[in-house]
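Lab notebook: predicted structure, single chain.

Context: the supervisor wants predicted structures on file for every construct in the current expression panel, including those that have not yet been purified. This is the next one on the list. No modifications to the sequence; it matches the entry in the shared construct table.
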Amino acid sequence: MIPRIHKRGKRTIGLLHYLYGPGTHEEHTDPHLVASWDGNAPDPGRADDFADTIKDLQRLLDQPLDNIDERDRSRKHVWHLSVRNAPTDRLLTDDEWGEIARRMVAATGIDDPDKNGAGCRWAAVRHADDHIHIIATLAQEDGYKPDLDHDAARSQAEARLLEAEYGLSRLNAGDGTAAQRPTSAERHKAAREQRERTPREELRETVRRAVAGADGEAEFFDRLGAAGLLVRCRIAPSGDLLGYTVALPDDRNKDNEPVFYSGSKLAPDLSLPRIRERWATAGTGEPGQEPDPQAASGHQFAPSGPAPARRRASHAAWHAVLVIDRGDDPAVAAQLAGAGEVLDALAKTSAAHTRRELREAAFAFERASRSHVRAVRGHDRALRQAARDLVRGGPALGRGEDGATTAMVIDMVFFLAVAAANWHARKGHAQQAAAARQTAEHLRTAYRQAAEQPLNALQERGRRMTRPLQLQQAAYVRAAVPELAGQILAETGWPALAATLADAETAGHDPAGLLAEAAQRRELDTAGSLSDVLVWRLRRMADLPADTTALPPASTQGTTTPQMKDRPSANRSDQRRKAR
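Prediction complete. Output recorded below exactly as produced.
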């Protein structure tokens, strides 16, 4: 159940004509009254003389204004609330909608039953199966004005109670940080124009992609223009930029003019001042900030293509998971904001077969990236740089190292989304937790699409290993993770992990030690396949190629190549030092 308080109006008769009229797209059917302040208000929808009856209803609603001095009357005295059910909810009767209307006006402060008729006058009109509209005049019978402080929050709280009592779809309680929902008119217009999303939602998605990894205003506005948006900037007399508005070229109003939205109307964190907060700390860390994971692990390369950029994003995502698990709240909030940029960048640069799911994941995570916990910028530096690398690295191919590193980064970001859901749940952020869980499901699907080919290649290499070498890899598993060994060795993905362990030893690492570290870094309960997760963790930690289709079969004489014979002890010593 979604209650929505609309902008206040000046003309009661104008709103009544809309409620009892055909609607802007002939969507109103059988408009009629279901409840009113005294239960005896005239109903124009069921009257023989519609014109006179609707005027009578308007006069009765506005009558309390006569008790207020004209100088003290509110210029906009018409209060308007709509209450809508989910499409899957059962059809409510008029009596049920009438009771819902009485509960809503009592909860919001329009009419209190305990005042014995001293509240505001109101009427509830039903003109569709799934919703009602309540119109009220903001003047009480005793001449006082109603107390409407936090009326929107009150209506939401009452809706949660009504959902439980009437067996309706249960919505999560909000905290006022969500982006503004599209209006009914915007939804109808989008359906009429056969748009997948409303212009407001399309613009929010496009602006978020333009922000992802941008390092200043010039790049941000260049990206908006390159995306095909119409952009207007608000300039102060001093020449300073105060704000911006954007529009889709093909979204026009009745005068054939573009419909512009300010950044703050798209989402709270897309206003220009909030976006500038991201740039204010670009390239610098806050005191006490964790080090850049790339610098800490020695991967200080500058990505020059999609695959290196995805590797860097994998490292940054894993670092973010650890911060979310153990960091303080402002640092966690910063990681979640940065993760949103990484998802936006992935959706923008993904291959065709993963694009839809990654786009849906980014769209869902937008809600999970924002709460009342204010992010301390600077903590998100690594993720913002990763997003920038992804955008600058360009579109990824769906095959080869591009495709395999895409699977790697999706796997890491999946665990980030799970960590975000758990953190929000602990904080009581119901909507954000639900959004993060929805993100994880989209990422799980995208992972399956991206990982199929590279994992098949790895599994084939593992199956072709000699029996002694396979037994050697199994021994490493039993030594490193004895409690998980039985499950891992029984999984269909085990050959891919065996090949990865062999590759790690060939590269000079201690397979058992590396596997133990990979397993201990974070829980594996949410993993669909332990083997898959460990494959990507090991290949990331050991800097192994993600795509193995061009690699020779695993060694049949041991896992140390001639080129590495002079270096294994030194490399293993380095690895043990990193693990410590």
